[in-house]
Design brief:
The complex is a heterodimer of chains A (206) and B (189). The longest helix of chain A has 87 residues. Chain A is built from 6 helices and no strands. In chain A, helix 1 packs across helix 2. Chain A is mostly helical. In chain B, helix 2 crosses helix 4, helix 6 crosses helix 9 and helix 7 crosses helix 9. The chains are: A mainly alpha (206), B mainly alpha (189).
Amino acid sequence: MRRTAIDCRSVREALEEYFEEVLPARRREQVASHLASCPACAAELRQIGKMAAALEAAPRVVPAEDLVRLVSMRVAELPAPGQRRALVLGFRRVGVLAACLLGLLAGVSYLLRSVLSQNEVLLGSTVIWAKGSMSQLIDWLVAVASLGASIWQAAVDIGGALLLAAKASLPAVGLYAAGEIGILLALILVFHLGRRKTLARHTLLI
Amino acid sequence: MNERDGGSDDGELIRLCLAGDSSAFDALVARHHRGVYNVTYRMLGNAEDASDLTQETFLRVYTRLDTFKSGNPFIAWVRRIATNLCIDHLRRRGRPESSLDQQIEAGVQHADATPGGLPAEAVETAEDTRRVLEAMQQLPEKQRAVLVLRHIEGLKLEEIARTLRMPLGTVKTMLFRGRAAVRETVGEL
């Protein structure tokens, strides 16, 4: 029977799966039938088998005798399993909770002060009493919020001053290009640092 | 070698270790370090890196031991950690030139010859192995990992997929491409 090039090409594409015995039954029969009468494809299958056999014949390598002792010594320096992770997570949770509480308090205090100051006349003596009782707390919280606002304003002022200085020394086109390059470099740096940190987690946690 | 080595299975040793018995972890290491070393050596191609990564594997196993799900095969979990560490290491290191260790190993293989020399067929097989191992060192990391797990560790495709947390189709693709690349490099065996 004359074998066409398409038959051989189709069979060779399936040879790896045929070797791994993962072809559907009908397809496996077709390939087996072709191999029985095609020396070239049969030779290709033998090469796959030889390569697999060569890898499987690789001798087991033996580690240095002190490997177990080295691991034991390094393990002795580590905290108990899970202990370090629990400590880090604990600190993180406390930090996140504290940040949320501060933000909530600052926001509530600012809102409360705004509401009270607007409605003092309308709500009369009740508002005056409430404001009087909590005035120290409200003032403290508003001071915290004001400090945050001051820091933000200072950052905006400094950033604006830098931009003006850059604008004075660079042409407009150069300024925009420099800005884009700067943002790109910052993103690359952040990505690189984040990737290094991720890889470092794969190594020993000491 | 720890006296517990023959008496307890992995699950029992893990339980003892989590309860604070450090000698139980020593027994786990003694039981599995050769298998892990074989994987790291065949992935990385040199003894120094293989030793370092084997140690890192067990240190990571120790720190994460409380997250291991009992009932699953312990060695599969350890093997996954070792393989992923090797893949990360290879990505950082890049692909090396032909490993001196492998050339030495080829010499050792021949040194194991019986008096009067190895049979011709054995010599040919050893030479084929050396060429194929050398070609495997040029593969991308994941293809190399799949070949090591399939042909050197003897895992089935489904086991490799579970070990590497990779779809079965991807494992097949990696395996077939890796083998094809090795055959192209080595030529006719």
